[in-house]
User: Fold these one by one.
Assistant:
Number 1:
Amino acid sequence: MLSVILQDTPIPISANPVIETPEIVWSSLAPHLILILGGILLLTLVSLLRGKAPSWFHAAWTVVVAGAALGSLWPLWSRVQEDGPQTLIAGAVGLDGFSLFVTGIICVSVILSALLLEGYLRRENLVGPEWYVLMLLSASGGVIMASANDLIVLFIGLEILSVAAYVLASMHSRRISSSEAGLKYLILGAFSSAFLLYGIAMTYGATGSTNLVRIQQFLVDTVLIKNGMLLAGFAFMIVGLGFKVAAVPFHFWAPDVYQGSPTPISGYMASGIKAAGFAGFIRVFVVTFGGTYAQQWRPMVYALAVLSLLVGAYMALIQTNVKRMLAYSSIAHAGFILIGVTVATDKGTSAALFYLLVYAFMVTGSFGVVGIIGREGDGKHSLDDYQGLGKTRPGLALIFAVFLLAQAGVPFTGGFLSKFYVINAAVAEEQYVLAVIAMVSAVIAAYLYLRIIVSMYFAGADDHGVSPEMANPPAKKVPAGAAIALGIAVFATLWLGIVPDTVTSVANEAVARLVAFQG
Amino acid sequence: MELIWLIPAFPVVGFVVLVLFGRLLGKPAAGWFASAMVAGSFATTLVVFLDLLSTQSAQRVFEQKLYTWMPAGSFTATFGLMADPLSIMMCLFVTGIATLIHIYSIGYMRDDENFSKFFIYLNLFVASMLLLVLGNNLLLTFLGWEGVGLCSFLLIGFWHTDLANSSAAKKAFVANRIGDFGFMVGIFLVWVTVGSINYADIRAYAPNLAAGTATAMALLFFLGATGKSAQLPLYTWLPDAMAGPTPVSALMHAATMVTAGVYLMVRLNPILHEAGWANDVIAWVGVATALVAATIAVAQNDIKKVLAYSTVSQLGYMFLAVGTHNYVAAMFHMVTHAFFKALLFLGSGSVIVGMAHEQDMRRYGNLRKYMPITAGTFIIGWLAIAGVPPLSGFWSKDEILAGAFNAGPAGPVLWLLGLITALLTAFYMTRQVIMTFYGDEKWREDAHAEAHAGADEAAEAGDEATGAPVATAVAAVDHAHDDHHGLTPDHEPVESPWTMTFPLVVLAGFSIVAGVLNLPFSDKLERLGNWLHPVIIGEHHMPNAPVLFGLASGAITTSIVGILIGYAVYEKRKADPSKIELSVLARGWFIDESYSKFMGGPGRAFYQGVADFDSKIVDGVVNGVGKGSLGIGRLIRPAQSGIIRTYALGFGVGAVLLLVFVVTRMSL
């Protein structure tokens, strides 16, 4: 093994040591700062107002904050497009098209979830700004993950993201399943964090740095004769990140947690948290270890992708609880996105990004509908509860059908194109087997979505009379916030399928790049 | 020709407007509006057609790129339309017939509460069909293909309060998905080999295709076509699809949508030209379908089921023509068939309305007295499909058979099988006409006993698998009863309103004269052949004139013999019909049933029985995927126990497996 001595700047020894603080370009951190400050301000404001704020205020605030973060992406994007990617805070954080795109997805997910949450909380007689504060903080963790340029920063982002999510999962205090979900998520999450941290430590041991640029530079300059420690680091980091994106076999938590969590939160988990997890995945593996080391980790991610595609679709099929079905189907979707990761090309990355964006709309929308159908107590999620929905609540049923068809990958919806791009990326790398497995998974999953649609439109209205489930109480009006969120989500799902050019060109430019820090 | 985008735009506008204001427009304005949109589309097509006609035949291709729909690296799918002789010919008869059927539907659906919804679907269907035909690349065709599939799904299940209808809709959906799989893989194969999915590029590249690749492509697309065009082995959905409203059967399941598979094959004729034995497969599947479906049609008692099997059979003819490189004949028959089969379906719809929604022909009889226009036009359709000259069906069918005769060593066998089919066709159509329009007025007999016979028949011949058909059989009986209640012995049938008879008369006119499109007497009279010439690669030779004449006389004789046998059996009662209408035929050679049995549940379980859908699909999937996956299931399901310890264990196992992999890879 070649011994390499890292040329760190020697710390000046003097009586009054001056610690140099790195220069920080605050404006480049805008999305992140807006989310964190917005969350904290909300908490403070509400305690000052002492309950005088109307119930919609929290949601509106959250939407405005996330919207502002989303808006701040535009100047940053043009900055990145003009000056190229850059690093900040002494190389700890990277600002590139990729991080901005993922930030955008997370903000979208927060906006939609907050809108859905508003009506949900009112219906469930749950109050408090904490829901929104936690969501904003969790999102800020996701943003840190997306722009992390250092494994430690990545880990910190992941923890910020997760701790808030653990609490959110268990916030519906009257539902025992919600507490159970939070607890399970916490324990298994801690378990997976340990794996990730251990992986980071091993990588540090093998390369002498946690900074992604330095790691990459080291691996380019050095030939590792003994690579065992590095590869073990890969394996452990894959376990940790695989947990976050709910890839098989690290998926066990997902069905229970998605099912138990308050429904709009499940939507947020499936869209925002998943996007952040994939951002970490891509930045560490595709970007940092993408070169010669890709062949070392690729088979592992490949296996995860195949397993997720098949197990997710298969298990989804045999569920009778719609929320649980969506959880398993989200595992299958993770398999699709992992295809984009495993090919480790720019094409794969932009396909994964496009997929994550489309999926954010589809899945928050789906969970939004499920949350409304779930009715008071958030418990009516059996497939039987969807019988005859096409008659009793035609609008809601139609919207849900659009989301389901999109998830199934029907043309003219974003779901079709996202699957197409991912498979396209696999074919471009001559990964035909993977492409075929993906198509098989899509076919299996199509039955699942069809099953729900059939239940909504064709069952319950036959000669057998009105089933007890059909005796719905008169449909309540869909809350305004939820209506807006569903409208946005449906529009985006279709728009991305019909005129995808506007977004795909952005996704194609949103490639992740590591840039060395020039101090 | 720049107007070409207007052709699909009209029905799209119709669709959007009706979605937004359909209820506001109400009856019958919504229907008239939808019809006007399709008529506008027809008028535009005419303009483009005349434009195309005025250019030189070699330059009759016009492409219009609207926008780039799907950029993906080197691969781009443009949203472009292509007007060439083939696509415009399709557009002409699709929009023409669709206009008539829209008008007809205004009458037919006049009592339906979802009147405007029906026209929303119809307009969407026309738009999708035009996209399918006009698209300049495979992906757009595929989009249209899925679109028409969706509309068909929605319209079959239009009266989805009705159990039989919604399960038929699902059946159609599933059969089409199987076919679509072939189509999708085919597109990928084309893209990987040719590097483009534009028809122009495919055509330019086709001569360089390796024979094996071309064969694979042809077979994959043919799989897609068997699904959409209801060929063996995927035809079973079409007869069930008759559960939908009759105008839908006429428009989609006879005239336009089901011919999409034939269109696709003709469109891809440059590939077929290189595809070797795949053509034989197409020809044999076609002729086998034609024969099998014709035998089944002989024993059906539902007026629409006869026509449905007849459609399957006629589509088989078209594939026979495609497989023998006789593309002109395939297109010719597609057009004439569209006229006379739409006519027959609309005629049957008129009868059904007149007979209080009774569809069992055994309760008809002597209706020519009550419904003269329907009867007269129906008889024209009958003579056309039976192949009596000089009606249109004779010319196109004869061209297919003559072409098949000339197709290599197996040609005469193909021809003979086709001829037997023609005999059967003449026979079962005669049977239908006599049972419906001649003989005694059978509904005046004891209605109650008849109703029960009909219900039993429905239970028996409703091709239920012996698995758990009880619920559905009972439902079928209920269904039959529902439909029977209107038809009492003192029922007086009346002729349908003019919105329904007008299309009949127009279609009857076309059914008579459409033969002039392509007469075999001189090169100049082969108008369709000359028109399509630039689109088709390779030459197809008809037999010499004396042989051709001999074959034609044979065909005419066969038709007349078929009609005479039918006359002897059903009018003169020279033989016992039950000797001919074997139950094996009535039940479609048990093909449908064996599918269900073979698949151990999922097939039938999937599309039958909405009520027990849930339990069935679980079993179906588990059984269908087989014992192997049952093992997997056993392995996985307990793992998802809800207990955190188990989850952590799974986690750990995963991590250990990854580490094991690392150990095999690493260099210590």
Number 2:
Amino acid sequence: MSQANAQALSPQSAAAAPPRQRRQTSDRAIAWLFITPTIVLLVVMNIFPLFYSLYLSFNDYSVIGSEPPKWVALDNYEKILTSERQRYWHNFTVTGRYALLSVGLQLIIGFGLAMLLREKFRGSGLITTLILIPMMLSPVVVGLFWKLIFDPSKGFFNYLIYTNPRGGAEWLSDPTLGLWSIVIVDVWMWSPFVMLLCLSGLSAIPDYLYEAAAIDRASAWFQFRRITLPQVMPLLLIAVLFRTIEAFKAFDVVMGLTGGGPGDTTETVAVRLYSEAFLGKFRTGESSALAYIVLIIIIAISNLYIRALNRAREG
Amino acid sequence: MLKKSGSVFILVAMILTLAIGAGGATAAPKAQVTELTIFWAQWPPADYLQEIGNRYEAETGIKVNVVQEPWGSFYDVMAAEWAAKGDAYDMVVGDSQWLGQGAEQGHYLELTDFMVENGIHETVTPATLQFYGEFPAGSGRYWAYPTEGDAVGWAYRKDRLEDPEEMAAFEAEYGYPLAVPETWDQLRDIAEFFYRPDENVYGVGVYTQKDYDGMIMGYENVMFSWGVDWWGEGNQVIGVVNSEEAVEALEFYKELYGFAPPGTNNAFYTEMNSVFVNGQATMIMNYFAFLPDLLNPEVNPYADVTGYFAGPAGPYGDRYTALGGQGMSVLNYISDERKQASLDFIKWFASDEVQQQWADVGGYTCNIAVLESEEFLTNTPYNAAFADSMTFVKDFWNIPAYGELLEPAQRYINGYVVGNVGTAKEALDNMAIEQHEILVEAGVLEE
């Protein structure tokens, strides 16, 4: 029975006895009650590790060693950025090439698919759904089954592009083709994501713009350049932003396909980070520094994109 | 709106829940040990150990749990446990390379006195004791009981090597009879002879995996048999790992890879068995621990025509094979009672009788008496080759910096063998320089 009902049933008793001072829990207290567990989780799982790893990046430390962290100031950063033997620049170069190729192709293919699927036709919904399937798969699974597809003796990739498949390329063991094979898989997997964003942009363009252009006898190319592209540009930039960030974190597909090999020809920064942080090395301090460098690069690139995005919106 | 009483109730409930949880977590260990937990990788030998553990429970009442972790994360989980100085496991059946870390960083209990007093060190083959149990090498200090002996062995297609037409053709071409290879040169000739891409038949499958240590575990077999070691006098590597013989060995390994089925550019034990059971490879290298699969006709359609042999000899008379397998160590962070109970288990497990049972259920024993017994040698088609191999095994570094030493070796050798990057000499020179710097940094070598 609620307090209000109880008072209504016995007004005399309420009037006779002095009302008890029952303190109510304030809205603010309730808000805190609900927020606190989330904040605690955030601090424990995100904020503390973030700052602790920042601290470790200035230390010589191995998480499995018995020695406590030893302060080395900027040594880890200096080693990563200047030491030739450390090969970190090679990893950044591989990642940069991968990001450029992968994101570039995704943009072209994703946008092209969106243009094709822009007009509704019988079965377009089904086709759109089928195209979206790759991006719903686990990257590890994708890496493993593409490894089979690229297999020179069992896979069908060479059957598709060579007249004599047995004489075809060994995609995953060729230092040049290794990176391309990862790019192909990433493009296959994530072009649908770009397509989806572009489709939503395209569907938001008002028809009257095209009608007005048609009245003015504007060519299809002119309409595309002056109406379609500017209208979709903000969403395209968002796609580029997301995909570039993901490209810098490329790990699972690379590990599934080449493991960074042959040699270190496809070793991206994320794969290198993993091998430094784990795989028998456990260079926790140095790998934390590398992680922060990657973070700074991603923030810098994101900033550039966001500026471009703002300009596109304003323009 | 909530009343204060409601809030207080929730608060009290939360505190009670936490208190009960914390109480459960921090309950004092019982003096009487009733359960032992052994940590190992997820693979059939761990199941066999569980079976042996069940027999221990039947005899003593102490339950034995073998906790299995997939190979990919086996080391990571153990390393995290070491870092936390955790007591979740009493024993670990750890890789031979972990010994240095376990010993130097205090994760493992030293077993020297225990093994010597109980004569356990004399029950296993010297090579397995050295590589699975001893650290530093030659010190006579033991940290693990050699549990699962393993080495790289070979499987081959008897129907191809014993086919009269093939034998005649081979002899006509190479001038000597086709038979199980006794030298690496013979193995190379057989691989070349059966390299027939048009028929989807290939000569040999060799390890090439880049991800962790697969490439090195393959190359080592050739390297050791060419008389090359991972370190020389005073732990020097320059002039040792990149010696002329090492260059020859690496070039030879690359030549073998040329006769391998396509797609084995990142191949380890799974891929080796795969190219054998699909009929492509005539010979494959693989750890003995993975050969039982080839006995099963449901897995290997050529099971009845599959033969096995131990690693061949090199051109200068050396014969070695790469070590696999693990030793059982007691973790240092458990209570004294649990340490004693773990030692009691190892003492029981190391007895000749239990080692015979271990071999019977499928484990690869390192026990001399069992290895030499006729029963063991004839138990499976590959046991004789295994027992033979256990007398000439060699291993990679097992110092704490082994992971760092492994990385450049994997990178340069995989790059050269699989990716045609540079020459064998360049690959080994670069590897030697990097390993030298790592050893200097680790204090194992002076500048």
Number 3:
Amino acid sequence: MSASQEPATQRAVSAEIAEAAAAPPRPDGHPDRAYRPYRSTALRAPQRPLVVTPPSLTELAAPVFGAADVAPIEADLTRHHAGEPLGERIIVTGRVLDGDGRPVRHQLVEVWQANASGRYRHDGDQHPAPLDPNFTGGGRALTDDEGRYRFVTIKPGAYPWRNHTNAWRPAHIHFSLFGTAFTQRLVTQMYFPGDPLFGLDPIFQSVTDEKAQQRLIAAYDHDVTQPEWALGYRWDIVLDGTHATPPDVDGA
Amino acid sequence: MLDLTPSQTVGPFFAFGLPFDGGGDVVPMGTPGAITLHGTVRDGAGAAVPDALLEFWQTGPDGRVPVRPGALHRDGRSFTGFARVATDRAGDYRLRTLRPAAPSGARDAPHLAVTVFARGLLHHLFTRVYFPNHVEANAADPLLAQLDEERRATLMAVPDGGVTGPGYRFDVRMQGAGETVFLDLSVSGAPVPT
Ligand SMILES: [Fe+3]
């Protein structure tokens, strides 16, 4: 094994993060796919430039989802088992918008996350933290007429990963979103305000524009918090581009 | 214009969040005209990628873009045009669907739109699957027309004899020799680095 394959120190990775942050950020705020501090990009980021082409009529439309696809209980991740999961119960809500600020209506929002201990219900997760028999960590919802979604869940824990020595992910919830065009497809992660791990994390820092980073962080919102029950966070999501709204579907 | 929400990787642990039962069965087994599409996702070293997620979105044989819910809980009759499949330990995926047709007035040849997600991809990739039998339409397709023969071949499904109907292979090479053509579909069309 060559030296370059040995796990780097946090100090070395932090230096790479600082170097990448010094370059001008992409205007769209997305990360570059080839981002050295996140080691898994090395063999998975394309080396050739993307081929610019106009979207096809197929790509200008998007799949639609409706009541047949998502049961209301899927939005409450604390009620998928007989008992209550351990951890800090939270409400996460917000709106899905297009670039012009129009709501993305009746569209699918999917989430997945670690449990309160920072452990995923996944065979590949080797973190020696307990699984919670009352928490799976996957949820779905449809946005309403105003593009709003709302999940009830528990706050996920931070967890270690093997990108480098002593690498820890800040607490996050993975989000998957559809717009009204396939070109608007987005998978991203929502973070919690004030996390001490932000500066150290290659995935969060792959978004090198500080303002764009802030758009990944939910706001604590006391108006969303419910007395004697759960803390509230608000997080709005803006999808790429501007596209015509296709017809709504009955039952959506 | 609002500032958009940046992309982040799907990570390695999406298995209980995104894939769903029957995600690759856009039509049931035995459906007249059904085709199978399968292939392997490989990284820059040629190694199979066991933690990729592919989505396919397409018109039906009538050339219409489906506007029909029910992809997550298929009723066995309605064609939703949407598939989502994770790769297995060998990096393989498989779906069963109908042939796409070009919508009337489309400049594009019949194709499946594809998104590729994986650990190590900070932003998903778009690509397309085209079919070799549409010789004329492929020749006129605005994307295929701008590619040389070698790159164009990365977007072409290869007939390989299906089990219960016509079968095609479509491999995805994320990086390196034979790298799949990935697309910038941004409205502005301004080239951006990968
Ligand atoms: Fe995660």
